[in-house]
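Kindly inspect this today.
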Amino acid sequence: MPKPAYHRVLLKLSGEALMGKQASGIDYNVLSGLSGEILKAASSGVQVALVVGGGNIFRGVGSGNDLRIDRASADYMGMLATIINSLALQGALERAGLDTRVLSAIEMKAIAEPYIRRRALRHLEKGRVVIFAAGTGNPFFTTDTAAALRAIEINADVILKATKVDGVYDRDPVKDPNAKLFRKLTYLDVLKKKLKVMDATAISLCMDNSLPIVVFNLAKKGNILKAMTGEKIGTVVHGGK
């Protein structure tokens, strides 16, 4: 097995990544495939933490507008959706043989541990996969921001941002086959060009803490392990030095 390039990583998954080809919800086959990939990565010696969105169940502000719910309440509903996804991921990972813990920013004693930084670090040191649920616990912040915040708090070496395309493009590659793929970008490039890597708050956090981001295609089998072993895939966002 290839030698890992990182000691500790945070893998950011969108809620939509769990849908597969369904219109919403969670596809068991996707969960099973993901858990197998993460098992290989964790078996290589990498300490793995995850943040998953909730867009496959409820997408905060967008869904809230449709239902005429105020922004704060809609965001809390979105956080609860991430809890559902986190528990589903935990079940799949444990079926694959990985010891897993869900730590929630919103206290839910019956189903998840409360997020405590030192506890999260201890779990990682023991080789457990840690899933950070419920975003930051505050409305008006995305799970991208939660991923950046948690990655910094646990001293992760990198954020691995899993997407549906091969990396970061200058235009939507689904709509425009001539879209250009960037192999390397600086944080300032992303902010100035308003590229859809992560939201501006998350990018600013990464920039302030020199935390690199690798954006790659989750749909390609083996890409999670490739990203964790430092193979050149996708787009790397860094400080430019």
Remarks:
- The chain has a mean pLDDT of 93.
- Residues 71-95 form the longest helix (25 residues).
- The helical segments are 28-43, 60-67, 71-95, 117-125, 143-153, 187-193, 200-208, 223-228.
